[in-house]
Write a structure and sequence with these properties.
About 55% of the residues lie in helices and about 5% in strands. It is mainly alpha-helical. Strands 1-4 form a two-stranded antiparallel sheet. It has a two-stranded antiparallel sheet with strand order 2-3. Helix 1 packs across helix 5, helix 4 crosses helix 6 and helix 4 packs antiparallel against helix 7. The radius of gyration is 18 Å and the shape is elongated. The model has no long low-confidence stretch (mean pLDDT about 90). The chain binds heme C (HEC). Heme C (HEC) binds next to helix 2, helix 4, strand 1, strand 2 and strand 4. The site of heme C (HEC) has 29 residues, from helix 2, helix 4, strand 1, strand 2 and strand 4.
């Protein structure tokens, strides 16, 4: 292969960057749409939650996402669901979060990308990855066991 001339290389790099930006934007759009379809009924349109029923997601998840154990919890939560009392934003909750194992990994990554990125300002490297989801599917905990992951 002939080496690229500098200007051609710059143009190619710009095209790659634009494509990547478009891909990220498309994944975020997909995540928002999927969130509306799968999660908003309980957690509300912008992740405000429904006090006493489903916890607030917006602005509440950043500290957990910063830790590997927190990302493990989020991945297991969407794969297996969760049951057991929790306190979030000073409110008590004790209902059941359904499992979403029937959704493909790509959709779960997109949804959690939206919830963590858009609703919690979490940087891409601290969002839940496809590897995290694969590990969660392998482990497949019972909903009351998932609850214990939240305490770490
Ligand atoms: C049928 C209602 C319902 C739906 C639909 C639902 N959730 Fe939940 N979710 C809950 C409930 C209830 C809890 C708290 C469970 C508990 O108290 O153990 C919860 C907990 C959570 C938590 C943990 C919050 C924390 O503070 O630890 C996250 C994150 C979450 N849900 C994300 C999602 C996402 C993402 C979706 C869509 C894929 C979704 N939920 C769909 C009801 C729901």
């Amino acid at each position: 292969m002939k080496p690229m001339r500098p200007r051609t290389a710059v143009r190619a790099a710009a095209t790659v960057a634009a494509t990547m930006a478009a891909t990220v934007a498309a994944a975020q759009d997909a995540g928002a749409t999927l969130y509306d379809q799968q999660c908003a009924v309980c957690h509300a349109a912008k992740g405000e939650g429904i006090p006493g029923f489903a916890p607030r997601l917006a602005g509440e998840l950043g500290a957990r996402a910063a830790k590997a154990s927190g990302r493990e919890y989020f991945a297991q939560l969407v794969v297996s669901g969760m049951m057991g009392p929790i306190v979030s934003g000073g409110e008590k909750y004790n209902d059941a979060m359904p499992a979403f194992a029937s959704l493909p990994d790509g959709q779960l990554v997109a949804i959690l990308g939206y919830v963590l990125g858009e609703l919690n300002g979490v940087a891409p490297e601290h969002r839940v990855s496809a590897q995290d989801l694969a590990a969660a599917r392998q482990r497949a905990l019972a909903p009351n066991e998932v609850r214990k992951l939240r305490d770490r």
